């Protein structure tokens, strides 16, 4: 339950990058703090206790960073969201302990803020921004309650806000660009349906989720003749029309796609009866097309089901549907053939021989 609540707060594609960022921030921050405490007079408050506490915190930061880098799977998921808040409290506590109101003490608050702007959800980022600003102000006024502190905090909070928002906006633009590029990489540019790569991803995902699925492999009959007789413009129009018919027949959970050339596919969430209904709807829609030459095109369709033992994984399902498509062509094209029927015919032929 806790994992389900935490997971959406951090961007899934950034999990690896977030792991590295936390590791580097912790190790770098711990090293800087530990070194300054040893070499800079008065950095740890000028007391033995202050030095001991500072070095202990620095050592814990380096150790935690090393754990994140070397054993990220052992770190609880909540850590990736809570770590910027923990960092803000540690920075505030160390600044208070060392009575540090210098620029260097304030700048450490930018580290967790930049992490949040890059890796966590935007509303969570604003919560951290408010927490960091309030913590910095409280520590600063506790050490030096004067007008200069008020001016410094106003300038610092403005800098925190601008830096965080700008990085967050850039992240949003970058994610939108990546999403667009991913969509283009997985979509057929002519028809607008998923291409072979996109279909393979959806097929694997659907089969891993379980439930009965059927695969239709759709082939345009005599497509080369259509291109040679009517031209490539008409050939493209045929492909677009077939893709439109597939999209119209598909229901939520189905996935139409162009596998390449004049070959299409539809992954149907349901049994063979529903898959046959989809196939019939597609063939009827293409036959009714008024923007294509009379009689163009007809479709041969191969059907395979996960209920069939020959189609329990992606490779087997595709092979079974391909065999059924070949059977439809051998029977004269312009028809639907099932892998079950294809195997039955093959078995009967073997018995006769």
From TrEMBL:
<feature type="transmembrane region" description="Helical">
    <location>
        <begin position="103"/>
        <end position="120"/>
    </location>
</feature>
<feature type="transmembrane region" description="Helical">
    <location>
        <begin position="21"/>
        <end position="40"/>
    </location>
</feature>
<dbReference type="GO" id="GO:0005886">
    <property type="term" value="C:plasma membrane"/>
</dbReference>
<dbReference type="GO" id="GO:1902201">
    <property type="term" value="P:negative regulation of bacterial-type flagellum-dependent cell motility"/>
</dbReference>
<dbReference type="InterPro" id="IPR050469">
    <property type="entry name" value="Diguanylate_Cyclase"/>
</dbReference>
<keyword id="KW-1133">Transmembrane helix</keyword>
<feature type="compositionally biased region" description="Basic and acidic residues">
    <location>
        <begin position="340"/>
        <end position="353"/>
    </location>
</feature>
<dbReference type="Pfam" id="PF00990">
    <property type="entry name" value="GGDEF"/>
</dbReference>
<protein>
    <recommendedName>
        <fullName>GGDEF domain-containing protein</fullName>
    </recommendedName>
</protein>
<feature type="transmembrane region" description="Helical">
    <location>
        <begin position="79"/>
        <end position="97"/>
    </location>
</feature>
<dbReference type="GO" id="GO:0052621">
    <property type="term" value="F:diguanylate cyclase activity"/>
</dbReference>
<dbReference type="InterPro" id="IPR043128">
    <property type="entry name" value="Rev_trsase/Diguanyl_cyclase"/>
</dbReference>
<feature type="transmembrane region" description="Helical">
    <location>
        <begin position="46"/>
        <end position="67"/>
    </location>
</feature>
<feature type="domain" description="GGDEF">
    <location>
        <begin position="211"/>
        <end position="341"/>
    </location>
</feature>
<dbReference type="InterPro" id="IPR029787">
    <property type="entry name" value="Nucleotide_cyclase"/>
</dbReference>
<keyword id="KW-0812">Transmembrane</keyword>
<feature type="region of interest" description="Disordered">
    <location>
        <begin position="331"/>
        <end position="353"/>
    </location>
</feature>
<dbReference type="GO" id="GO:0043709">
    <property type="term" value="P:cell adhesion involved in single-species biofilm formation"/>
</dbReference>
<dbReference type="InterPro" id="IPR000160">
    <property type="entry name" value="GGDEF_dom"/>
</dbReference>
<keyword id="KW-0472">Membrane</keyword>
């Amino acid at each position: 339950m806790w994992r389900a609540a935490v997971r959406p707060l951090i961007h899934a594609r950034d999990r690896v990058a977030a792991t590295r960022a936390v590791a580097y921030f912790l190790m770098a921050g711990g090293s800087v703090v530990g070194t300054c405490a040893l070499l800079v007079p008065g950095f740890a408050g000028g007391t033995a206790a202050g030095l001991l506490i500072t070095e202990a915190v620095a050592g814990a930061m380096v150790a935690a960073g090393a754990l994140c880098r070397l054993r990220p799977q052992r770190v609880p998921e909540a850590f990736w969201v809570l770590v910027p808040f923990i960092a803000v409290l540690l920075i505030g506590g160390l600044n208070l302990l060392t009575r540090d109101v210098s620029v260097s003490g304030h700048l450490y608050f930018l580290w967790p803020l930049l992490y949040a702007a890059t890796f966590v959800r935007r509303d969570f980022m604003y919560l951290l921004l408010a927490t960091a600003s309030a913590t910095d102000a409280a520590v600063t006024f506790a050490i030096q309650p004067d007008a200069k502190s008020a001016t410094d905090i106003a300038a610092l909070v403005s800098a925190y806000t601008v830096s965080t928002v700008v990085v967050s906006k850039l992240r949003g633009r970058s994610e939108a660009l990546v999403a667009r590029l991913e969509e283009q990489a997985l979509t057929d540019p002519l028809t607008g349906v998923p291409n072979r790569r996109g279909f393979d991803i959806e097929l694997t995902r659907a089969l891993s989720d379980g439930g009965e699925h059927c695969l239709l492999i759709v082939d345009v009959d005599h497509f080369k003749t259509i291109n040679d007789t009517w031209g490539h413009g008409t050939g493209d129009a045929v492909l677009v029309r077939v893709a439109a018919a597939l999209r119209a027949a598909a229901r939520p959970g189905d996935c139409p796609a162009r596998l390449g050339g004049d070959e299409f596919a539809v992954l149907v969430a349901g049994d063979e009866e529903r898959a046959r209904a989809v196939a019939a709807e597609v063939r009827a829609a293409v036959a009714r097309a008024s923007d294509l030459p009379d009689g163009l095109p007809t479709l041969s369709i191969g059907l395979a089901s996960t209920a069939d033992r020959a189609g329990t994984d992606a490779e087997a399902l595709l092979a079974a549907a391909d065999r059924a498509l070949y059977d439809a062509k051998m029977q004269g094209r312009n028809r639907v053939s099932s892998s079950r029927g294809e195997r039955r015919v093959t078995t009967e032929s073997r018995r006769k021989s």
